[in-house]
Amino acid sequence: MDVKQLTHFVQVAEDKNFTLAAKKLHIAQPALSISIRKFEQQLGLKLFKRDDRRIELTGEGEVLLVHAYKVLQQVEDAKLAMDELRGLEKGEVRLGAPSMLGSYFFPEILMAFKSRYPNLKLTLVDAGTRSIREMLLQGELDIGVVVNDDISDDLETDPLINAEMVAVVGKTHPLAGQKSLSFESFFSNELVMFKPGYFHREYIESMAQQVRREMNCSFETNLLPMILNIVKNEYAITALLELVTQHEQDVVAVSFEEPVNIELSLAWRKGGYLSLADRAFLDFVKEHTESSKLA
User: Strands 55-57 and 92-97: what pairing?
Assistant: First the structure.
């Protein structure tokens, strides 16, 4: 079993088509078929079920795929480590963050980091925390923001911020003058919410079940500007992190009667390789957040 065989196997498993996989691997389709057949013979196992229309993994193939992803990621990590020992830094930080943090928490940090390290590239991916966890484990992200109470055993973490989740309403909405709001009152209004997969959506859904109320979700979108415009025009209310309302006019934050505090952390793959750029970014964020607390 070698890296090339595993790479061929994974590509066919993902595409379920030899012709398409061969094209992505830049090899001839017959050569790929021979490679997979020899691999199966070497293992003494059938990895794919083939028919005229479709290719599917066998049970043995599904087991191997899990390990193949991990092996190939470790090989990539090893290549990266060797490059850095030769003085070739990765030069890129791939960060995953939910849109509220990406829009209101990280811009200042990212610009300051870029000023200190002008040769490094920063890539910010907007996604829900569930998707971020998967992308971290698959090696598609280097660092990501996750909720502290839902962390995979395969991830390492470092605390980021403790943020309050609040009800957000238009400034002339009847609820705007209240000091606090019950969840029963919140769910009696029309709502605009992020789609499932975002931590605050999941929390609000759990609270609806807890207080035995239906979520009257009139609007559903992952576009934060659209959510804010709907709230500002008072077509619906929503729940967001309080830090959003600190930067937005025409919306009002109303705390829940039992304040909701969300602990967020930066996470990365346990045992994965963190480049010099990644480690510099983690140190920089910690430095920034600690100085903000002292200010």
Answer: unpaired
